[in-house]
TrEMBL record, chain A:
PROSITE patterns: ATPASE_A (PS00449). Keywords: ATP synthesis, CF(0), Hydrogen ion transport, Ion transport, Membrane, Mitochondrion, Mitochondrion inner membrane, Transmembrane, Transmembrane helix, Transport. It comes from the Eukaryota. Belongs to the ATPase A chain family. It catalyses: H(+)(in) = H(+)(out). Pfam families: ATP-synt_A (PF00119). CDD domains: ATP-synt_Fo_a_6. The chain crosses the membrane at residues 6-31, 67-86, 98-117, 137-158, 164-184, 191-222. Component of the ATP synthase complex composed at least of ATP5F1A/subunit alpha, ATP5F1B/subunit beta, ATP5MC1/subunit c (homooctomer), MT-ATP6/subunit a, MT-ATP8/subunit 8, ATP5ME/subunit e, ATP5MF/subunit f, ATP5MG/subunit g, ATP5MK/subunit k, ATP5MJ/subunit j, ATP5F1C/subunit gamma, ATP5F1D/subunit delta, ATP5F1E/subunit epsilon, ATP5PF/subunit F6, ATP5PB/subunit b, ATP5PD/subunit d, ATP5PO/subunit OSCP. GO terms for molecular function: proton transmembrane transporter activity. It comes from Homo sapiens. This is ATP synthase subunit a.
Amino acid sequence: MNENLFASFIAPTILGLPAAVLIILFPPLLIPTSKYLINNRLITTQQWLIKLTSKQMMAMHNTKGRTWSLMLVSLIIFIATTNLLGLLPHSFTPTTQLSMNLAMAIPLWAGAVIMGFRSKIKNALAHFLPQGTPTPLIPMLVIIETISLLIQPMALAVRLTANITAGHLLMHLIGSATLAMSTINPPSTLIIFTILILLTILEIAVALIQAYVFTLLVSLYLHDNT
Amino acid sequence: MLSRVVLSAAATAAPSLKNAAFLGPGVLQATRTFHTGQPHLVPVPPLPEYGGKVRYGLIPEEFFQFLYPKTGPYVLGTGLILYALSKEIYVISAETFTALSVLGVMVYGIKKYGPFVADFADKLNEQKLAQLEEAKQASIQHIQNAIDTEKSQQALVQKRHYLFDVQRNNIAMALEVTYRERLYRVYKEVKNRLDYHISVQNMMRRKEQEHMINWVEKHVVQSISTQQEKETIAKCIADLKLLAKKAQAQPVM
């Protein structure tokens, strides 16, 4: 039981070769590019969605921040498609692995902070002290702000990992509970309904993408352009 | 590949260019040739408008048609599923229920919102086409307007001689009017001058007459001596008396 529960989170291998690379490379196949103006429905809806999200996301940046738009839009698309594909049965979600999320979070956060420190040192350092603090509290507050800054990439990565993993685990558990109940007490179809509701809430894992990119965005904005 | 040959040749020919290694990628891109393939000589066939027909969203229709001469596809499908279940090739586990719920939600979502999304995508495409169509129609309309304007201008040119005739008449009349005005003015001036001379003459004559009369009166008055004056006065008185007697006699009768 224990082994089976976490079996879906083992990085899949095919005869010892990591298949995780193939799995991570799969989602772009679902987002076709096209060189025509009028496309089929899939491409049209996808292009419309991407246009909507990118406009929404990059609206609050200045010119320098908007140079990151390709990075951020591809980030949100990747995380969204990966999470949604992980909902299918017997599939593997790369974003459940902390290693991958750290690999996404740390470079992006570090890039934003370093960019901020390079261009406007005073502004970047000023973030370590909020306005209007009483003088005796300043040393402690600086330490706290530094810690909160340094913990941001960890928070980003762990947030995503924990949410997705928890969701998948829950679905597994409730599925196995239903399996057990179906032999003991068949009329417990109510639990199947619970799965359904949980699933639709889990499809708000897509909202996690919003949370991820949004947090990243906000931190980028604050660090870089103010 | 050719550009790399060029680079190495340049490096051997001019050793100072070896330091320009950072220009390497730019040179590679700058010397890349485009459009090396043969152009299409016939029109490229258009893309199909609809995808292939699919049953249950997964299995293409051709599969069913392929199987129909040999065996029923539904029977084959049921048999395969039951075989997999009974031999535990497919194990019913917790994942089965997860799969059921995911697929159930997906199917429900697609059935409910599918047509809406399809219509939305179609509308987006139609908007794009409408924009292009609008541009084309606007261009055609613009050119049509230009043609109409040109035609009307040409028609107007045909009728231009009326305008010229009217203008000519106008000018002739204006000339005539000016001529007559001047003629009248000349006449008036001449008459003025002649009137002046006449009035001068009249005045001279009148003055001469008055002068003559005054002169005659003066001399006559001078020539009347006192003697003559007395005699004339006495005669006049006698005449008057006579007349008075005659006159008085009349009413008595």
